[in-house]
Amino acid sequence: MAAENTPDSLERLVIMIPELSLARDVSTVMAIARRAVRTLTGADGASFVLREGDLCYYADEEAIAPLWQGQRFPMQTCISGWAMLHRQPAVIEDIFADPRVPAEAYEPTFVKSLVMVPIRTEYDWSAYSTSLYEKSMCGVSAETASLVPTPKPSIGASAARRAAMAYSSRPLRR
């Protein structure tokens, strides 16, 4: 993933904030978020995952090839569920070497590494997460974790937080 703390990244974040403030429906918030997060990180794909009871709903995505948009998976068996339940990011360099990842779901895809970030972890529930996907295993590392929401600010974390605030701060049309 490309370095995110550049003047262009800051400009994209500054553009994203008013876009989110004008969003009046869920699909617009998700589109702005996935586009911005993917642009800011240089990832090959990004998705917006919602929690629906015991399921993870892959509500929106932007990637170099189709992934799981519109599909639902049990929280206990997918990495997005793991990130939501544990309220912490998952940075996985090799998805086929990590027991938290259902390898069979990823075999037909381009994804080799990923970052799964729960959003709004300060609450007792994590209702959504943002996913970043890479087609090469060298694309994700512990260094990439700087983009996730932590006490240390970053542009990617700021984008994810702004999307979460827009999604949860007011009623949106579905």
Q: Taking Cα atoms only, what radius of gyration do you get, to the nearest Å?
A: 15 Å
| Percentage of residues in helical conformation | 25-40%
Give me the secondary-structure category: alpha+beta
CATH homolog superfamily: GAF domain
CATH fold field value: Beta-Lactamase
Strand content: 15-25%
- Strands in their spatial order, largest beta sheet: 3-2-1-6-5-4
| CATH level 1 name | Alpha Beta
H/E element sequence? HHEEEHEHEEH
So what's the overall shape? globular
Number of helices: 5
Q: Number of DSSP strands?
A: 6
Could you give a short description of this structure?
This protein is of the alpha+beta class.
Summarize this structure as a short list of keywords or feature phrases.
174 residues, 6 strands, Beta-Lactamase, 6-stranded antiparallel sheet, globular, alpha+beta
Report on the structure:
This protein has 174 residues and is an alpha+beta fold. It has a single domain, classed as 2-Layer Sandwich (Beta-Lactamase), CATH 3.30.450.40. The protein is 33% helix and 21% strand. It has helices spanning 7-22, 26-41, 79-86, 103-106, 155-168; strands at residues 45-52, 55-63, 72-74, 90-92, 113-119, 128-134. It has a 6-stranded antiparallel beta sheet with strand order 3-2-1-6-5-4, with helices on both faces. The longest helix has 16 residues, at 7-22. Mean pLDDT is 75; it is low at 141-153.
